[in-house]
Design goal:
Structural class: alpha+beta
Largest sheet: 5 strands, antiparallel
Strand content: 5-15%
Helix content: 40-55%
Order of helices and strands: HHHHHHHEEHHEEEEEEHHE
Radius of gyration: 25 Å
Strand order of the largest sheet: 2-1-5-6-9
Number of helices: 11
Length: about 300
Amino acid sequence: MSDFIIFRGSGELTKPATLLIEKVSDAFGGLCKPWQIRRIAKAEGNALKTKAQANAEAALIEARSEIEITELQRRGVVRLFMEEGIKQGNMESILGKAIPLLKNSATPQDMENDWIVNLLDKCRLISDDGMQVLWAKILAGEANSPGSYSKRAVNVLASLDSIDAILFNQLCRFVFRIESYFVPLVLNLNDLIYVDNNINTNMLHDLAEINLIALAGIGGTGFQGVPNIITASYHGSSFGIEFKTKADQASKNYLNTGIVGLTKIGSELFRLCDVKPIDGFYDYAKNMLAKNEGIQIIELRETWACP
């Protein structure tokens, strides 16, 4: 019988939650299959420690019946049980945090076993609560829509420390949705709106080194050949961008969006970020984009809620 403990408040688990637990259990060869589901108390860490010690002592008693072990070996066995207890607690905590994020339409049964094993292998050492939340979001997101997150995105997330995560989350506060693309609008690093929010060359290079963003050259980056009217949205406010070209000349339309673009992995991990809008950035971006040659701004009434 396993001791994998999962909770969702009080009451019964939803069907998607039960399927996720079963899927994780199957992917791990039954190692984590739950036989008892209960709320994890705040003293879970102490409980794991006590259990690990008890298991270690039981193992030692059995071992002594066959061989005489040294004090060094005894400490090694205790350490092993303690480490595995901590890893188990981390995985349980992340899975517990993922369950409330599941949608009723989630299909965790369609998740790939290799993907689950890779994620659990990477997250078992994560004890920081904030980082555990990110791992829970990626697990729930994949269960809600299998195929949403690549193994590469999981591996990059595993390489992030809490400072990297904070920097990326800060940059994502500058993300606009332009049509179906999410774009960090970093237009002029010398402007106060970036300086005041700690967006600078060093942090951008740090994020580029871990493959979350791509930096453009001197000319910047942008959209080429876009339709004559496109939509830009930012946390509940939208405006249209109209190019003053003839319909058959749309291939010449170009919108400069600054010096930063999200990589594929960055776009995947962006969905995990809990970003808040920056006061004044909507108007700033609208005015700056209006400086692109041959366009005019059109006010719209479309809302966008950041994922």
